[in-house]
Amino acid sequence: MLAVFAPAAIAPSSAPSASTGARRAHTAAGAAGAHPGPAATLFRVVGCASAGGPYRHGPDGREIAIGFDDGPWRETGAFVRMLERGHAHATFFVIGRQVTHAAREEMLRELRDGDAIGDHTFTHPNLTRVGNVRAELAQTLAAVRTQTGYTPCVFRPPYGAYDARVVASAHRLGLATVVWNVDPSDYREPGVQTIEERVLAAVRPGSIIVSHDGGGVRRETLLAYERIIAVLHARGYRIVTVPALLSFAPVYARCANACDGLGVPRSALPRGARISETRARSNP
Description:
It contains eight helices and twelve strands. By secondary structure, the protein is of the alpha/beta class.
């Protein structure tokens, strides 16, 4: 778990949301993250502080969250770029054995954009049928932290399968268990229009949507979400990360060396951010 102390100064009520603020701050400070200068004190996102669960949806407001499962994958980069074009955020629930150095830059890009990374176990088992729940979760946390310096605070169980033992194991690792209340079964490849229709018919204020960027050919899902995001924006929804939907505070730490383009000054930290007592180091 991440040790934190007092929250950063709260921005005025007109300030952007945490995820939007992070995207703007990281974009503006990318060069500073790479070459901060001797006098600069920069902070980078290193995780989030979760509580409670399991969660099927968030508060009844004009925000929804999309979780893409089973990456990093060959099509994950296309999903990241789609979200950038659509001015939306998502949470990428990753399989730990797929979190390799080859995926490092794409995952850092997600974090620079203000997206979140979640734990989806190391080997994608049904956790209610295995005895090594803690290892499945902890190995994935370690893999993500090694490649990005970020520690997830949300966990999605494969197949949506969980019990009290699974939830308790996740909680002890600082992870909130998150499932969903909207499922278009995109993994079955039912067609772009069917995915669109299923999501748009089921979404409600505070919905958490499950879809997939990995585990198969995900072209249909990618194309469907271009349209889904546009329609949800037109309906007045903000599309945020799961931690943002559930009001989990982002956690930042002072950069001990390179910030990987994630470094921002303390004045640019998003609303409600917490500061870790541990300095963040880059892992090249």
